Amino acid sequence: MIKILIADDHTVVRxxxxxxxxxxxxxxxxxxxxxxxxxxxxxxxxxxxVVVLDITxxxxxxxxxxxxxxxxxxxxxxxVLSMHPEDQYAVRVIKAGAAGYLTKESFSEELVKAxxxxxxxxxxxxxxxxxxxxxxLGTGAERLPHxxxxxxxxxxMCMIASGKMAAEIAENLYLSVNTIRTHRSRILEKMKMKSxxxxxxxxxxxxxxx
Length: 210
What we know:
Helix content is 51%, strand content 12%. With 210 residues, the protein is of the alpha/beta class. The chain has 2 domains: 2-136, Response regulator (Rossmann fold), CATH 3.40.50.2300; 144-205, Winged helix-like DNA-binding domain superfamily/Winged helix DNA-binding domain (Arc Repressor Mutant, subunit A), CATH 1.10.10.10. Strand 1, helix 1 (11-22) and strand 2 (27-33) form a beta-alpha-beta unit.
């Protein structure tokens, strides 16, 4: 029996996942988590075969949860199931150790297939994600400006581009406003930009917003 921990702050998503898994005889939802702290606590204390993790979580965000779990339980497979399109986070989460990346628009059959692959110790990579991963292995000169940002800087950049102010971003990420402003300065410097408007235009141009 494949024991699964599902981590998502939306009740409707968890209910939907439970409905899908309930129809698979060799899989079971062993536990649920509704925020980053809870999933980290449960994943490190209990034994699961697969964690299905949302990226956008209250408390500790999914990327940080992923990195902390992989640091302490490197063999625990983690599938990321996110509302964000592949272009936004897929390559980053795979490089951080995730067993696969699926959007919430994926068919239930694809989710089941991904869980089976992860529980067997394999990666689940869609053809489109495979192309993105291959491209990301190119030289630094071939990389797009946003690809040189750290995971935290990239997260802040997406939030800036979506119109959030520094205070709101700080509250969402549990950081100080000064830290967010420092991240913004580094983002502008690394991407060779001068203003928030340039960040917004770039994010729209490269389809980095939901």
